[in-house]
Amino acid sequence: MNLTAEQKKRYTAVLLLLLLVCLLYYNFFSGEEEEPAMRTKTAATPTPRPPQQSGSVVKVTSGPAELLVTEPLDLVSMNNKPLSQATGRNIFIYPPPPPPTPMPLAPTPTPPPPPPITLAGLNPSGVIARTADFMLTVVGAKIPPDAKAILNGREYPTTFINESQIKVAVPASAIAYPGALRVEVRSAQDASLYSNPLTLNVAEPPRPPYLYLGYIVKHNVHIAVLKSEMGEEPLNVRKGDLIDKRWRVVNITEQAIELLDVSINVSHRIPFTS
Fold first, then answer.
1. Which residues are paired to 122 by β-bridges?
2. Could you give the strand order of the β-sheet that contains 266-271, starting from the edge strand earlier in sequence?
3. Per-residue pLDDT band at 146 (split at 50, 70, 90)
4. Which residues in 158-181 are b (16+ Cβ under 10 Å) and which e?
5. H or E element: which one contains 33?
6. What is the percent of the chain where pLDDT is above 90?
C-alpha cells in the first residue's frame, strides 16, 4: 500500500506517543513494586560503620530508611582519665570564691590631752541634803592662785591655800535636794587652765521611823500619839520632848507632827495617819 508523506508523518507521531506512554507506565508502576524490597534489604544488612567512641550514637542511613544504634557508656574508662583529658566542663564543680576584701581599719582617735589642773579628792566626799552651810576642801595639783570652784556650773567663793589645796564655801541652798554635784576648778584669768571633774554626793536625810496616830488635848496641852514602825506600843509625846535622844518634837497640829533631827539639824513633817 502506498502511503503519502502526510500519512507517514501521522503514523510516526502516533508510534512515538505510544512509546512515551509505555516508558512512563514502566517507570511509575515497576518502581513502586521494587522499592519495598530494596528498603527491606537495606535494613536487614546495615552498611558497616567506622569505629566510634564509647557512649556515642551512630546513625546509619541507606536511602529513605534510618537506623539509630546506641552503645553503653564506659564509665570505668572515663573515671580513669585524668581531669586534663576530660572533654567539656563539670557544671557541678565551682571555682572557690575570691577572698573577701579586708575592710579598712578606722583610724584610732587621738586621746585628748590631760587637763592642766588635776583634782584628786574632796573633803567631805558626801553631805546630807537640807543641812547647813559647810566648807568644802578640794585637793589636787597645779592649782593656780586665781582658781575658782564651780559646782554644777555655778561659781562659789573660793580660797586659795596652795597649789594642791583650795577651800570652797558651799551654802545650804546648794545642797537643798539629794543628788550629785559636779565639782570643777578653773582659772579666773586663763580659760585654758581647767581641771578634771569630781562628784560630791548629796544624800537623802534619814526619816523618823514613826507614824502619827492622833493627838489629845488635856489641860490645854497637846499630846501626840506616835507609834514606831517596828511595831512597839504607842508613845505619847508633848512639844519639846526628845525621842530616842535624837528626835525633838517641834510642833503638833491635827494634820501633822514636826520632828527635828538634832544630830544634823534637819526637820521632818509626819502627816496624820488614820
1. 138
2. 242-243, 247-252, 256-261, 266-271
3. very high
4. beeeeeebbebebeeebbeeeeeb
5. helix 5-44
6. 52
Q: Which among 74-83, 175-184, 222-231 has the top mean pLDDT?
A: 175-184
CB atoms inside a 10 Å sphere around CB 46 = 14
Q: With 80 as the cut, is the pLDDT of residue 53 above it?
A: no
Q: Is the dihedral of CA 38, 43, 46, 49 positive or negative?
A: positive
pLDDT of residue 81: 55
Backbone angles phi, psi at 270, to 5 degrees: -110, 115
| DSSP string for residues in the chain | ----HHHHHHHHHHHHHHHHHHHHHHHHHHHHHHHHHHHHHHHHSPPP-----TT-EEEEEETTEEEEEE----HHHHHHS-GGG--S--TT--PPPPPPPPPPPPPPPPPPPPPSBEEEEEESSEEETT---EEEEEEEES--TTEEEEETTEEE-EEEEETTEEEEEE-GGGGSSSEEEEEEEEESS-TT-BB--EEEEEEPPPPP-EEEEEEEEETTEEEEEEEETT----EEEETT-EETTTEEEEEE-SSEEEEEETTTTEEEEEEB--
The x, y and z cell numbers of residue 42, run together, are 537495606
**According to the model, what pLDDT value does residue 79 have?**
57
- Amino acid present at 101: T
Nine cell digits for residue 258: 514636826
pLDDT at 44 over 50: no
**Which residues on neighbouring strands pair with residue 185, listed in sequence order?**
149
